[in-house]
Design goal:
alpha+beta; Trefoil (Acidic Fibroblast Growth Factor, subunit A); 2 domains; seven-stranded antiparallel beta sheet; two-stranded antiparallel sheet; 3 helices; disordered C terminus; dolichyl-phosphate-mannose-protein mannosyltransferase activity; Protein O-mannosyl-transferase 2-like; MIR_dom_sf; transferase; PMT-like
């Protein structure tokens, strides 16, 4: 009895927990964004529920980039600039945030300006990314390209400064 009762209680609580776990509470939306996309796709009520993700990324795709090694945060850019002492030249801040936001979306572009690009859309057949492909990462909301240089980051001095710089995607050769 001393062994069976705790086992039954444990299994009972686990069954209740498992029965409720598949549902998403819209009030928890910001907390749910820290869960893996695969887990979110299984939550009924989550906006990723039953969403299928492509297995491959193609040039021109709109993507979110997520740090899975440290905090699970999304790469995020906005039009606020670094102070001049940190990064001269009106470089826009690139940070990471744990919540889903419209400023977390980036477009994957060819490394060089593409003559097939018409009105911001690729006219050629789909070209998928491969290992070691060079790309440009373009932030649609601010019209800026992601960049990095050997300047130390303002917070973690061991890392390089990542920023975005406004660019016309048809005239990006000088960036």
């Amino acid at each position: 009895a001393f062994v069976i009762v705790p086992i039954v209680v444990y299994i009972g609580f686990f069954a209740i927990h498992d029965a409720l776990l598949y549902r998403s509470d819209s009030l928890m939306y910001f907390q749910e964004s820290s869960y893996s996309p695969g887990f979110q796709m299984g939550l009924v009520g989550n906006n990723l529920h039953n969403l299928s993700q492509p297995k491959e990324v193609a040039f021109g795709n709109l993507v979110t980039l997520r740090n899975t090694a440290i905090s699970g945060s999304y790469l995020h850019s906005h039009n606020l600039t670094f102070p001049y002492k940190v990064a001269p030249g009106k470089k826009q801040q690139v940070t990471q945030v744990a919540i889903k936001d419209k400023n977390n979306y980036f477009r994957i572009l060819f490394a060089d300006a593409n003559p097939e690009l018409s009105d911001g859309h690729y006219a050629e057949p789909i070209e998928y990314l491969h290992h070691d492909d060079l790309v440009r990462i373009y932030h649609n909301n601010t019209g800026a390209l992601l960049a990095c240089n050997k300047t130390a980051a303002p917070v973690s001095h061991r890392h390089y400064l990542v920023y975005s710089q406004p660019a016309n995607i048809s005239q990006t050769d000088e960036i």
